[in-house]
Design a protein that fits this description.
The protein has about 450 residues and is mainly α. Helix content is about 75%, strand content about 0%. It is built from 19 helices and no strands.
Length: about 450
């Protein structure tokens, strides 16, 4: 009998260690291949279920952990948007496209369920280690890109090629303005790094934004930290790269989130004033001295809310008027299918059809353009019901972050909610894992963090 008990404890310990190890590996997802991410996620989920099956009776007897109604509410709120997307497949005509999208988004179900089952294996210290590993992966990714960029400076800074001029409709132009040249070179650079690491600049800008917050917080809380200069150097490198790749919304969201947290947090008046003024000064200096930022900001102001027209040429397009056209078509489709949406399988096809027939057939035929707004995406896929469920899941996240005074979670959920306004974060694995892993960790492991303070 005693041998069976010892054997059971040994199995529980071993599976717990494997689960923790796989959790740490997943924190390195920015530098893992997509195939490796999938394999580790599957193993992680299997281990999570195993840990739960081994410890279920013990946990229920000990503290009724899985009888906690709050946890079930959080789980249901978090996975219900995905479940409704699955239901939307029943009225989608393109079943194969919808099924492909659901498989790609399945991490939105896997990580909440997995951490709900086995969050007893983790605590606040483990979250900190996950954050450190994540930051390390982001630093490695950025350094890798910097090295390759330096090795290809001639390519990145060289004269515009005939192919680039042709694509941008400028082959017949004798002279080009500096603004036109800079705009094309920025596209060249962003395409170069996107191809190099197979990740869109927006997603790595999100990763960098969250990493910068964690590093700055660590530095502020440990002013006599022996690695202060190392941290400052890493912060400068990451910030410089974030400015260079010039993804607007992650930059804006980072600045606004910092100001929101400082303003509503328990900080002194001077701290609030200096922080807000510092962020504003940083924004102005970035605009004035960094070409990539200035070009993209000017582009947004010059374009406003105008869209491309049917007869517009290639030279007339930019990222802003392309987005405006997407929002026009997305809003039109959503209005006509407000209650249940068009189904996850048909959204892209209907969006393409509207963009090509009503906006510009040439430019919007280059590739598929998603809705570029996560909230709009849920309305298109599963209607106002799906949108409300998604918003409710974010409200639950904000509630937990505020109730437990979890500033890391508050920054994360505020930051990601802002980025959702202009990006379909949950349409690619890079964004899905970022949101699913950290949101689930903060949401479910919090119950086991005994140091958490309630308001």
């Amino acid at each position: 009998m005693r041998e069976n008990i010892n054997l059971g404890n040994a199995k529980e310990w071993l599976m717990g260690r494997i689960f923790l190890f796989l959790t740490y590996i997943l924190a390195l997802f920015p530098i893992l291949t997509y195939g490796l991410r999938s394999i580790i996620t599957i193993l992680w989920l299997i281990t999570s279920v195993w840990c739960f099956s081994v410890a279920k009776k013990k946990l229920c007897k000990k503290n009724n952990f899985y009888d906690n109604r709050k946890l079930y509410i959080r789980l249901l709120a978090t996975i219900s948007p995905y479940i409704l997307l699955v239901f939307s497949l029943t009225y989608s005509e393109n079943i194969s496209e919808g099924a492909k999208n659901l498989v790609q988004m399945v991490s939105l179900l896997v990580f909440p369920v997995g951490l709900f089952l086995s969050s007893h294996r983790l605590n606040g210290d483990h979250i900190k280690k996950v954050q450190i590993l994540f930051i390390s992966a982001v630093v490695i990714l950025v350094v890798y890109q910097i090295i390759h960029s330096l090795l290809n400076l001639n390519l990145l800074l060289g004269d515009l090629t005939n192919e680039e001029l042709k694509v941008n409709g400028l082959l017949d132009r004798i002279t080009l303005t500096n603004s036109e040249i800079n705009k094309i070179k920025i596209r060249r650079f962003r395409k170069f790094i996107s191809t190099l690491i197979d990740t869109h600049p927006t997603y790595q800008a999100m990763w960098i934004g969250f990493s910068l917050y964690l590093l700055i917080k660590k530095l502020i809380n440990n002013l006599r930290f022996k690695y202060t200069f190392t941290y400052i150097f890493i912060i400068i490198v990451l910030l410089s790269w974030m400015l260079l790749i010039s993804s607007r919304m992650p930059l804006i969201a980072s600045c606004l989130t910092i100001m929101v947290i400082i303003y509503f947090g328990s900080f002194g008046f001077k701290t609030k004033v200096f922080t807000i003024l510092g962020v504003l000064l940083f924004s102005l200096l970035s605009y004035h001295f960094i070409d990539t930022i200035r070009v993209r900001v000017n582009q947004a102001f010059d374009t406003g809310i105008s869209t491309l027209k049917l007869n517009d040429k290639v030279t007339d397009f930019n990222s802003v008027n392309i987005r405006n056209g997407i929002y026009y078509c997305g809003s039109k489709i959503a209005t006509n299918n407000l209650l249940f949406g068009v189904g996850i399988g048909d959204t892209q096809e209907l969006l393409n059809e509207c963009l090509i027939t009503e906006i510009n057939p040439k430019i919007y035929s280059w590739r598929d353009y998603n809705s570029h707004n996560q909230y709009l995406s849920f309305i298109l896929d599963s209607g106002i019901i799906g949108f409300l469920l998604f918003v409710f899941s974010l409200v639950i996240a904000f509630y937990v972050a505020i109730r437990y005074r979890d500033i890391d979670y508050l920054f994360f959920i505020t930051f990601i909610s802002m980025v959702f306004l202009t990006e379909n974060v949950l349409v690619r694995n890079d964004g899905i894992l970022f949101y699913a892993i950290f949101n689930s960790l903060f949401l479910f492991v919090r119950e086991n963090n005994k140091s958490a303070k309630k308001i």
